[in-house]
Specification:
Blueprint: E1 5-8, E2 15-20, E3 25-29, E4 35-38, E5 44-46, E6 51-54, E7 57-60, H1 61-71, H2 85-95, H3 106-121, H4 130-149
Antiparallel strand pairs: 1-2, 1-5, 2-3, 3-4, 6-7
């Protein structure tokens, strides 16, 4: 579950939010375990708040990570295996075919794969909240009931 996992602009890696102070946040680097404060002038964003542009709207990052996890069979993505930016974009097109090729840059895809690798290495492989998954399952069941009655 990605709740509490954040990215800090200008700092490499991902961080786990530990606590909130009066004028700062206390975070822990997922990879190294090192704790540090962040301050109001630093741009902090929660991973569930990020989305990827597609032709039909935006797709939340947790959904994209789920698809990437399925495509990679739960393993890390070998970033060195992509000889060219086009190869990287082709692989991402297999994960999310409808991504907006004009607005999603190769650097964005690299960052996404890097974050995915960090999460998998930290054994964080559940990307969506249980409540959201339960809501989606309930909606799918309702839709199936409606279709079977029709």
């Amino acid at each position: 579950m990605l709740k509490g996992i954040i990215s800090i602009t200008g700092k490499a890696g991902l961080y786990k939010l530990l606590s909130r102070g009066k004028n700062n946040l206390i975070v822990e680097n997922i990879t190294t375990g090192k704790r540090m404060p962040t301050y109001p002038h630093e741009k902090v964003i929660s991973l569930p708040d990020i989305s990827i542009y597609t032709e039909g709207g935006d797709v939340p990052l947790p959904d994209v990570l789920e698809k990437l996890y399925a495509k990679a069979d739960g393993k890390a993505v070998d970033m060195k295996g992509f000889a060219t930016p086009e190869a990287l974009r082709e692989y991402f097109a297999e994960v999310l075919p409808e991504f907006d090729r004009d607005r999603v840059y190769t650097t964005d895809i690299r960052k996404l794969f890097s974050w995915y690798n960090i999460l998998v290495a930290a054994d964080i492989t559940k990307f969506k909240d249980d409540e959201i998954a339960q809501d989606e399952a309930a909606e799918a069941a309702e839709k199936a009931d409606e279709e079977s009655k029709a």
